[in-house]
Amino acid sequence: MENAYVTFAMGPIVLSNLYLVGPKLSEDAVRSSEYYHLNRLLSTVGRLLNDVQGFKKEAAEEKLNAVTLAMIHGNGSVSEEEVINEMKRIITSKRKELLKLVFQDKDSVVPRACKDVFWNMSRILHPFYERHDEFTRHDGMKTVNELIKEPIILSELQSRK
Asked: pLDDT by residue (tens digit) across 35-50?
Protein backbone atom coordinates (compact mmCIF):
# COMPACT_ATOMS: atom_id res chain seq x y z
CA MET A 1 0.00 0.00 0.00
CA GLU A 2 2.89 2.34 0.71
CA ASN A 3 4.03 2.38 -2.91
CA ALA A 4 0.67 1.87 -4.60
CA TYR A 5 0.01 5.58 -5.08
CA VAL A 6 3.08 5.96 -7.32
CA THR A 7 1.77 3.34 -9.76
CA PHE A 8 -1.35 5.35 -10.52
CA ALA A 9 0.80 8.12 -12.07
CA MET A 10 -1.62 10.92 -11.24
CA GLY A 11 1.23 13.26 -10.28
CA PRO A 12 2.30 14.28 -13.81
CA ILE A 13 -1.30 14.61 -14.96
CA VAL A 14 -2.29 16.92 -12.13
CA LEU A 15 0.94 18.93 -12.17
CA SER A 16 0.59 19.85 -15.84
CA ASN A 17 -3.00 20.96 -15.18
CA LEU A 18 -2.00 22.98 -12.14
CA TYR A 19 0.20 25.22 -14.24
CA LEU A 20 -2.84 26.05 -16.36
CA VAL A 21 -5.47 26.85 -13.69
CA GLY A 22 -4.53 30.41 -12.94
CA PRO A 23 -2.56 31.27 -9.83
CA LYS A 24 1.16 30.95 -10.23
CA LEU A 25 2.39 27.76 -8.65
CA SER A 26 5.78 28.27 -7.06
CA GLU A 27 8.57 25.72 -6.93
CA ASP A 28 8.30 25.87 -3.13
CA ALA A 29 4.60 24.92 -3.30
CA VAL A 30 5.29 21.94 -5.59
CA ARG A 31 8.10 20.74 -3.32
CA SER A 32 6.08 21.24 -0.12
CA SER A 33 4.81 18.48 2.13
CA GLU A 34 1.30 19.84 1.57
CA TYR A 35 1.56 19.24 -2.20
CA TYR A 36 3.08 15.81 -1.57
CA HIS A 37 0.15 14.84 0.67
CA LEU A 38 -2.45 16.14 -1.80
CA ASN A 39 -0.84 14.09 -4.56
CA ARG A 40 -0.41 11.00 -2.40
CA LEU A 41 -4.03 11.04 -1.21
CA LEU A 42 -5.44 11.55 -4.71
CA SER A 43 -3.22 8.86 -6.22
CA THR A 44 -4.06 6.38 -3.45
CA VAL A 45 -7.78 6.93 -4.01
CA GLY A 46 -7.32 6.42 -7.75
CA ARG A 47 -5.19 3.31 -7.35
CA LEU A 48 -7.66 1.69 -4.94
CA LEU A 49 -10.69 2.56 -7.06
CA ASN A 50 -8.94 1.02 -10.06
CA ASP A 51 -7.92 -2.08 -8.13
CA VAL A 52 -11.38 -2.69 -6.65
CA GLN A 53 -13.02 -2.49 -10.08
CA GLY A 54 -10.34 -4.33 -12.03
CA PHE A 55 -9.20 -7.05 -9.68
CA LYS A 56 -11.25 -9.92 -11.17
CA LYS A 57 -9.96 -9.22 -14.65
CA GLU A 58 -6.42 -8.76 -13.37
CA ALA A 59 -6.62 -11.91 -11.24
CA ALA A 60 -7.71 -13.88 -14.32
CA GLU A 61 -4.61 -12.49 -16.07
CA GLU A 62 -2.51 -13.46 -13.02
CA LYS A 63 -1.70 -9.82 -12.23
CA LEU A 64 -1.50 -8.53 -8.70
CA ASN A 65 -3.23 -5.47 -7.28
CA ALA A 66 -4.21 -4.18 -3.83
CA VAL A 67 -7.20 -6.51 -3.54
CA THR A 68 -5.40 -9.70 -4.52
CA LEU A 69 -2.37 -8.77 -2.40
CA ALA A 70 -4.58 -8.18 0.66
CA MET A 71 -6.22 -11.55 0.12
CA ILE A 72 -2.81 -13.26 -0.23
CA HIS A 73 -1.47 -11.57 2.91
CA GLY A 74 -4.63 -12.62 4.74
CA ASN A 75 -3.55 -16.27 4.30
CA GLY A 76 -7.06 -17.29 3.32
CA SER A 77 -8.61 -15.81 6.45
CA VAL A 78 -10.20 -12.84 4.65
CA SER A 79 -12.82 -13.03 1.96
CA GLU A 80 -12.96 -11.08 -1.27
CA GLU A 81 -15.95 -9.16 0.10
CA GLU A 82 -14.12 -8.24 3.32
CA VAL A 83 -11.10 -6.97 1.38
CA ILE A 84 -13.27 -4.92 -0.98
CA ASN A 85 -15.18 -3.41 1.93
CA GLU A 86 -11.89 -2.51 3.62
CA MET A 87 -10.60 -0.93 0.38
CA LYS A 88 -13.80 1.11 0.12
CA ARG A 89 -13.38 2.22 3.74
CA ILE A 90 -9.81 3.33 2.98
CA ILE A 91 -10.98 5.18 -0.14
CA THR A 92 -13.58 7.06 1.91
CA SER A 93 -11.03 7.87 4.59
CA LYS A 94 -8.45 9.15 2.07
CA ARG A 95 -11.08 11.28 0.31
CA LYS A 96 -12.01 12.87 3.66
CA GLU A 97 -8.33 13.59 4.33
CA LEU A 98 -7.99 15.10 0.87
CA LEU A 99 -11.03 17.33 1.34
CA LYS A 100 -9.71 18.47 4.71
CA LEU A 101 -6.41 19.47 3.08
CA VAL A 102 -8.24 21.29 0.28
CA PHE A 103 -10.13 23.44 2.80
CA GLN A 104 -7.13 24.00 5.07
CA ASP A 105 -6.05 27.65 4.93
CA LYS A 106 -3.69 27.87 7.89
CA ASP A 107 -0.04 27.42 6.85
CA SER A 108 -1.09 26.47 3.33
CA VAL A 109 1.44 27.12 0.54
CA VAL A 110 -0.58 25.56 -2.28
CA PRO A 111 -3.14 28.04 -3.71
CA ARG A 112 -6.78 27.07 -3.22
CA ALA A 113 -7.46 26.92 -6.98
CA CYS A 114 -4.65 24.36 -7.27
CA LYS A 115 -5.99 22.33 -4.36
CA ASP A 116 -9.39 22.35 -6.05
CA VAL A 117 -7.82 20.55 -9.03
CA PHE A 118 -6.86 17.68 -6.72
CA TRP A 119 -10.38 17.49 -5.32
CA ASN A 120 -12.01 17.71 -8.75
CA MET A 121 -9.77 14.92 -10.06
CA SER A 122 -10.90 12.80 -7.10
CA ARG A 123 -14.51 13.57 -7.96
CA ILE A 124 -13.90 12.57 -11.60
CA LEU A 125 -12.32 9.24 -10.64
CA HIS A 126 -15.38 8.02 -8.76
CA PRO A 127 -17.87 7.87 -11.64
CA PHE A 128 -15.07 6.68 -13.91
CA TYR A 129 -14.57 3.58 -11.78
CA GLU A 130 -18.07 3.31 -10.32
CA ARG A 131 -19.20 0.32 -12.37
CA HIS A 132 -16.22 -0.63 -14.49
CA ASP A 133 -12.58 0.04 -15.06
CA GLU A 134 -13.24 2.52 -17.88
CA PHE A 135 -9.60 2.57 -18.95
CA THR A 136 -9.68 -1.04 -20.06
CA ARG A 137 -13.32 -1.39 -21.09
CA HIS A 138 -13.53 -1.56 -24.86
CA ASP A 139 -16.03 1.26 -25.38
CA GLY A 140 -14.17 3.47 -22.90
CA MET A 141 -10.90 2.93 -24.76
CA LYS A 142 -12.66 3.56 -28.07
CA THR A 143 -13.89 6.93 -26.84
CA VAL A 144 -10.46 7.92 -25.52
CA ASN A 145 -8.80 6.86 -28.78
CA GLU A 146 -11.32 8.85 -30.79
CA LEU A 147 -10.61 11.94 -28.72
CA ILE A 148 -6.88 11.57 -29.19
CA LYS A 149 -6.56 10.27 -32.74
CA GLU A 150 -9.39 11.79 -34.73
CA PRO A 151 -8.81 15.35 -35.91
CA ILE A 152 -11.13 18.10 -34.81
CA ILE A 153 -12.57 19.79 -37.88
CA LEU A 154 -13.16 23.45 -37.11
CA SER A 155 -15.73 23.96 -39.87
CA GLU A 156 -17.93 21.20 -38.35
CA LEU A 157 -17.79 22.86 -34.95
CA GLN A 158 -18.68 26.27 -36.40
CA SER A 159 -21.62 24.85 -38.40
CA ARG A 160 -23.16 23.52 -35.16
CA LYS A 161 -23.65 27.03 -33.78
From this structure: 999 999 999 999 899 8
Contacts 24+ apart (CB under 8 A), 119-124: 121/10, 121/13, 121/14, 121/42, 121/46, 122/42, 122/45, 122/46, 122/95, 122/98
Does 88 have pLDDT greater than 80?
yes
Least confident of 2-11, 46-55, 95-104: 2-11
73-91 mean pLDDT: 88
Torsion over CA of 19, 141, 47 and 81, rounded to 10 degrees?
150
pTM for the model stands at 0.75
Report which residue type is found at 7.
T
DSSP the chain: -TTHHHHT-HHHHHHHHHTTSSS---HHHHTSHHHHHHHHHHHHHHHHHHHHHHHHHHHHTT---HHHHHHHHTTT-S-HHHHHHHHHHHHHHHHHHHHHHHH--TT--S-HHHHHHHHHHHHHHHHHHSSS-TTTSHHHHHHHHHHHHSPP-HHHHHHT-
| 70 touches 83 (CB < 8 A) | yes
